[in-house]
Amino acid sequence: MELLIDTHAVIWFITEDSLLPLKTKRVIENPDNTCFVSIASFWEIAIKQSIGRLNLFSDLEEIFRIIENTGFELLPITTNQILINAKLPLFHQDPFDRIIIAQAICENLQIVTKDGQFENYDVSLIWEK
What is the full DSSP assignment across 94-124? Predict the structure, then answer.
């Protein structure tokens, strides 16, 4: 499977947070799956940390290095994904989540997320409890 890991799931994965269910963690760790992290997630982490809405155990550069060292592939944002994003219905207002949804649609990826609002879009979701 090809998976796009939502920002909260990335954070919970690298911090080994129990909010990430064990079954979901195993899906992410399965070597048969290819896991992508959107550049939008890096941007979201940076913004939330800079405004004090996200406290992480290390500085931003180290967090980025840890994410990159997991073996996740970085997914850039393309103009085609932005065009898809612009056409999405406004069920979800968060711009970071909207681009992740658009990327999943454009690249035919399944999204690993707990966010129930993603269900309003034509995307495949994974959240194993």
Answer: -HHHHHHHHHHHHHT-EEE---GGGGGSS--
Q: Which domains does the chain have, with CATH numbers?
A: 30-115+124-129 (3.40.50.1010)
Contacts of 33 (CB under 8 A, 6+ apart): 1, 2, 3, 27
Q: What amino acid is encoded at 8 in this protein?
A: H
Q: Are 128 and 21 in contact (CB under 8 A)?
A: yes
Q: Is 4 a residue whose pLDDT tops 90? A: yes
Angle made by CA atoms 36, 40, 44, in degrees to the nearest 5: 120
Residue range 116-127, pLDDT digits in tens: 999 999 999 999
pLDDT digits (tens, 9 = 90+) for 69-101: 999 999 999 999 999 999 999 998 999 999 999
